[in-house]
Structures are given as C-alpha cells and as structure tokens.
Amino acid sequence: MNSGNSLNNSLGDSIEPNQPISECLVQALTWQWQGFAIGYQQAGTAQSNAPAVVLIHGFGASSIHWRKNIPDLAKNCRVYAIDLLGYGKSAKPLPGQPLDYTFETWGRQVVDFCQQVVGSPAFLIGNSIGCVVAMQAAVMAPDQVLGVALLDCSLRLLHDRKRQTLPWYRNAPTPYIQKLLGYKPLISFFFKQLAKPKSVKRILRQAYGRQEEVTDELVSLLLEPAFDEGAIDVFLAFIRYSQGPIPEDLLPQLACPTLILWGTEDPWEPIELARAYADYPAVEDFIELEGLGHCPQDEAPEIVDPILAKWIAQKSA
C-alpha cells in the first residue's frame, strides 16, 4: 500500500428516516423515490452528531458488496449502503419509463437519499461505477457531500470520447458491437448464460487479486437480483451506455476532499491509467493497494476499512 503524501502517513423492514440505530444491527430498509422502491442497508452509532457515510456499489453488484465494511465503519459513523435504481433490492423499471439508467439519474438518487433519508451531508464512498455516481452527486449538490472516496473508479474506457483515442483497429468494431447489443433475444440468451454461478465466479476471479475471497456465498448474493423482472433490460441499458460523464469531467469540478484507493492488480481499470488522477486539486491522496484487484473493499476489508475510518474521522474533525 503506497501513498505519495500525508494521509497514508497519518493512517497507521421499514423505520422512520434519521431514527437512532444500533452499530450492532444492520437493517435492510426501503425508501420510496420518484415512485420506485429503493433498497438500502443502515447501521451505526446512535450518536446523532456522528458522521454519515453512504456506500455506493459498482456495476452488477448491490449494497451487499459492502457487507464486510458496514460493521467496521458503523463503530463511529452512521452508515448507509444504497442499491442504485436497477440493482439489488431496488426497482428495475424499463429504461425511459420514466427514468434512464445514467449517472445523472443515479447522482440525483444519491443526493435525494442524503436529503430525505440520511438527513445531513454525508461522505460518499464508491466502488467502480459507484465512484462516478458519487462524483456526479458531489457536483450536483456540493452542500450535501462532505467528502468522496473512490475505490478503483470506473475509467469508462468504452465511452464515445475515450474510444476516439484508441487505435483504429480497436475502435472500429465498436459501432457494430453496439448494434448487435440492441438485439434483445441475443442479449437475453447471453445474460442467462452469464447469470450462472460458474460464470459469475470465473468473472470475479479475474477481477479479484485475492481469488480466495470469491466465495459461493458472494456469488449467490450477487446473483439473486439477476432473476428479478427487468434485470436484463438494466444490463442491456448500461452496457450500451457510452455517453454521460467520465472521471476526467467530474474530478476538476469537485469541491470536497477526495481520497482515491486503487488495487494494483485491477485488470478492468488498470492503475497505470489512473495515477494521473492524483494531480487533480481535490484529490488529497492516491493510495495504491498492493496485490488487490477491482473490489478492494471486499477482498481486504482489514486494509481498506481502517484507511476509510481514519480519513472520515480526520475530515469530520
């Protein structure tokens, strides 16, 4: 775990919103947002002045991906782990009826969650596309965000603008692939093949630096929402989503303290393409997590949680 500056050196069913909560109890709750049920988990200290933390999952995951981190962070914080619209226990409406699956939609969801459920500004912690959601929310409503922590942020390498920087032989097939992705019977077949334990386990083992952390329990938890009505449409909508913001758009607009953690063995979001993010003014530290992959919070909570807890404590003070 490496760092270039100061932070790493100093780190050695339904209830009313804002009700005091027990750090020993993780509650699975539901919030109504724009007519849709949104699932989330809640835990933490009963102290009303404790810092609030909102955890935001990545693509194909849900709030369950933070199950190892919630108890640690809840010792001194009010912790909320949200299911983005289309994922986990949240509703999965057809795209455009009335909302599209975009970072603007999810960013607004997180901002409204902070206002209506958390009841105070919060620290946003994201993994993968959850990082882009966190930054989008911070740009939309800076008064609602105390700080942003990004864990292996999605680089959005298939975005239209980023593809223009690729060699022609890598960029040329993309329009044909996107057209193919519009053929729903084919995508339905592909999705059903993908949504099998063996397939999910294989994919996760590619992404995790610590492959032993890819357990049958994890696979089962991540697979469960894949069988909900609408899950295929959500999957299709996002893999065809090549517009919207990229990190390079949002990072310069951040006005809050920003911490970046990155697994050195992440095969999906290569760290060598991300190190330049440390140069943005809002980024106070870029910490490299040696030997970890794309989901460090699940692979090594004993490493990640103390870093996050100390950072939150420092910024709260």
Automatic annotation (TrEMBL):
Keyword hit for Acyltransferase: yes
Boundaries of every AB hydrolase-1 domain copy: 53-303
GO molecular function: acyltransferase activity; hydrolase activity
InterPro entries assigned to the protein according to its UniProt record, in alphabetical order: AB_hydrolase_1, AB_hydrolase_fold, Epox_hydrolase-like
Pfam name, any one: Abhydrolase_6
UniProtKB keywords: Acyltransferase, Hydrolase, Transferase
Full protein name: Putative hydrolases or acyltransferases (Alpha/beta hydrolase superfamily)
Gene source species: Phormidesmis priestleyi Ana
